[in-house]
Every structure is written in structure tokens, then in C-alpha cells.
Specification:
About 50% of the residues are buried. This protein folds into two domains: about 170 residues, NAD(P)-binding Rossmann-like Domain (Rossmann fold, 3-Layer(aba) Sandwich); about 130 residues, N-(1-d-carboxylethyl)-l-norvaline Dehydrogenase, domain 2 (Orthogonal Bundle), CATH 1.10.1040. It has 14 helices and nine strands. Helices cover about 50% and strands about 15% of the residues. The termini are far apart. It has about 325 residues and is of the alpha/beta class. α12 packs antiparallel against α13. It is elongated. The strands form two sheets. Strands 3-2-1-4-5-6 form a six-stranded parallel sheet, with helices on both faces. Strands 7-8-9 form a three-stranded mixed sheet. The chain binds nicotinamide-adenine-dinucleotide.
Length: about 325
């Protein structure tokens, strides 16, 4: 239904206006949609209001009359809180409304929400994202989408505004499945890159030299080429600003928890995934919890007695 309407005729309820949801809601408002935004934190609502989002006072208000309800929440428990109950999205969105949950949550939780939405006469997609706050702000996110083909097609105009691409990964839950697999791999990569730099440094190799070779050789990966964990070789990487911004250790720890629960449940032999889970669980209990997850290099370097700036100790 919503795809037949112009943006100005389309109302989007947006719940969760945080680091990711705030800029996403603003981009939709800038694209001409009527965006009714709600967050439990008043400052988040105020920031979005300043950029064209219409503030509403509750989840129920955000859902009432909405063609589309988008959620960007920290975890599945909060998605349940927002979806369920008399004041929730499922009870208040009009029949046929399209629900797009961009939160990273458990695969089975996503499937459960989809089934509950269908029972309520609504359409649902799990659509977790990759691309971080920069991608959310620039509208260049990558969406990993699970759900029915026709529902994915109906959501295309919104993905076009918010992202550079949206990949239909399969039925309900498939978007979350791909997200968890990707982030488990990413965590392993980031630790591996940190260990490789530490070894190179102990062997007397300069950071820049190792980077120049490995980034163009078989060691190449995003964790090295873009999120390089030592300052210098990639000026825009978080390591150059004391690991501020980026993708926080706490969020990686959450995603690994979801991935490893799936590993256990499905009997997958994932020794490196489990080791990465342990490493990020420990790191999340330190003051590094809020820093970009490439900060894991600092722990590796410090335990290895690496002298910063390249070279052996
Ligand atoms: P965030 O904590 O900045 O934002 C979440 C927002 O939800 C907060 O503003 C919070 O107040 C709000 N909220 C919580 N409970 C609510 C409720 N009951 N009703 C209304 N609002 C409520 O988190 P974020 O970084 O924006 O991440 C959102 C989701 O996107 C998470 O699932 C995260 O894993 C995922 N994600 C984040 C990143 C990233 O780089 N930050 C990247 C990819 C995916």
C-alpha cells in the first residue's frame, strides 16, 4: 500500500532515535516523508525534531496511522517491549502496515516478531544494518533483509533513502543470520589483524611497511584496510583518534553473544568465534567498552610488550 503513495502522503513511525535511528529518521524526513519519531530519551527526540522529524509522545502514537514503522533499538528485549502489549506497535499500527526492524537481534526472536506481526495483519522485515553511524548519516547503509519477497519490494523506497544497498537474504530471520555471521567473522579478522601488527612490530617491521604489503596481499580485509588498528597507515581509522566513535566494543560483544548462542544451538564447530567471544567479553569489562572494537589491538600490544610507533621492544 505505501509504495503507491508519494513521500509527503506517507507516514513513517520511527521508534529508537539513537546513534543509528536518529540519522535514519532525519534522512527520511529530508526525503519528504512524514516521520513521527519517538524515543525514551528526550534529547534524542529533540535532535531529530531540529532536523524535520515530528516528535510524538509514545510508541502507540508513532504506530497509529503509520504506513511504515521502523525500529532501531539496542536489543530484542526492547523490540518486544516496543512491539507487544496494548501500547505496542502490533496493537496500534493500521492493518497492512509495514514493519521494518533494523535492530540487531537474535534470529529466532526476529522470526517470532514476524509471525506475531502477520497474526496482527501486518507485514514485517528483519533488516539489520552494516555501515555504522557514518553510513546512517550519509544514507549509505547496507541492509541485510529477511522476509517475504513482496514485502521486501514494498520496502525498497525506504531502503533507497537509507542505504547504498539492501540484500534480500531469505525468509524471516535470514537478515539477522547474515548479520551475525558477518560480525563473528569481523571480530575474528580484527583480532587477527591486531596480532599480526604486534608480531610484525616485535620482529622489527614498521607498521606502515606491514600495512603496505598485507593490505595488497592475502592478508587484505576491512579490519586492516579501513579499520586499521594502529594509527598512521589509514588516517580515517578510529586508532587515529584514540578509538573514539566507530563500532563500540559493547556492540561487538552483544553481536558475538547472539552469534555464539546460534553457534551453540546449531552445533557449529567455531573455535575462533568462541575465542573472539571470550576476548571481547573481557574487553567489554574494561574502560575500553565504549571505544571502537579495533582497540583490541592495544590489549594485544600491551600484553606483547610492543613499543608503540613500530619496531621491536
Ligand atoms: P543507541 O543505544 O544509540 O540507540 C537506541 C535508542 O533506542 C536509544 O536512543 C534509546 O533511548 C532508544 N530506546 C530504548 N528503549 C526504547 C523504548 N522502549 N522506546 C523508544 N526508544 C527506546 O543504539 P544504536 O547504536 O543506534 O544501535 C541501534 C541498533 O543498531 C542496535 O541493535 C545495534 O546493534 C545496531 N547497529 C549499530 C551500529 C553502530 O555502529 N552503532 C552498527 C550496526 C548496527
Amino acid at each position: 500500500m505505501s509504495t503507491d503513495k508519494t513521500p509527503a502522503d506517507t507516514t513513517i513511525g520511527f521508534v529508537g532515535l539513537g546513534h543509528m535511528g536518529g540519522p535514519m529518521a532525519i534522512n527520511l524526513a529530508k526525503a519528504g516523508y512524514v516521520v513521527h519519531g519517538f524515543d525514551v530519551v528526550p534529547e534524542a527526540v529533540e535532535q531529530a525534531r531540529a532536523e524535520g522529524v515530528v516528535p510524538v509522545g509514545s510508541v502507540a502514537e508513532a504506530a497509529t496511522g503509520a504506513d511504515v514503522v521502523i525500529t532501531s533499538l539496542p536489543n530484542g528485549g526492547l523490540v518486544a517491549k516496543v512491539y507487544e502489549g496494548d501500547e505496542g506497535v502490533l496493537a496500534n499500527a493500521p492493518k497492512g502496515a509495514l514493519l521494518i526492524d533494523t535492530s540487531t537481534i537474535d534470529v529466532d526472536e526476529a522470526r517470532g516478531f514476524s509471525a506475531a506481526a502477520e497474526t496482527a495483519g501486518l507485514r514485517h522485515l528483519d533488516a539489520p544494518v552494516s555501515g555504522g553511524v557514518v553510513g546512517a548519516t550519509k544514507g549509505t547503509l547496507a541492509f541485510m533483509v529477511g522476509g517475504r519477497e513482496d514485502v521486501v519490494a514494498a520496502a525498497a523506497p525506504y531502503f533507497d533513502v537509507l542505504g547504498a544497498k539492501a540484500v534480500h537474504c531469505g525468509d524471516s530471520g535470514a537478515g539477522q543470520a547474515v548479520k551475525l555471521c558477518n560480525n563473528m567473522l569481523l571480530a575474528i579478522h580484527q583480532i587477527g589483524v591486531g596480532e599480526a601488527f604486534a608480531l610484525a612490530e616485535k620482529l622489527g617491521v614498521q607498521d606502515q611497511v606491514f600495512y603496505d604489503v598485507a593490505s595488497a596481499a592475502t592478508g587484505t580485509c576491512w579490519a586492516l584496510n579501513v579499520n586499521c588498528p594502529v594509527p598512521g597507515p589509514v588516517p580515517a581509522s578510529p586508532a587515529n583518534r584514540d578509538y573514539a566513535g566507530g563500532f563500540a566494543v559493547g556492540l561487538m560483544n552483544k553481536d558475538l553473544g547472539l552469534a555464539l548462542a546460534a553457534v551453540e544451538k546449531n552445533g557449529v564447530h567455531a573455535e575462533l568465534g568462541k575465542a573472539a567471544g571470550q576476548i571481547y567479553r573481557s574487553l567489554n569489562e574494561t574502560e575500553a567498552a565504549g571505544k571502537d572494537f579495533s582497540v583490541v589491538y592495544e590489549e594485544i600490544a600491551s600484553k606483547s610488550g610492543v613499543v608503540r610507533g613500530g619496531g621491536a621492544s
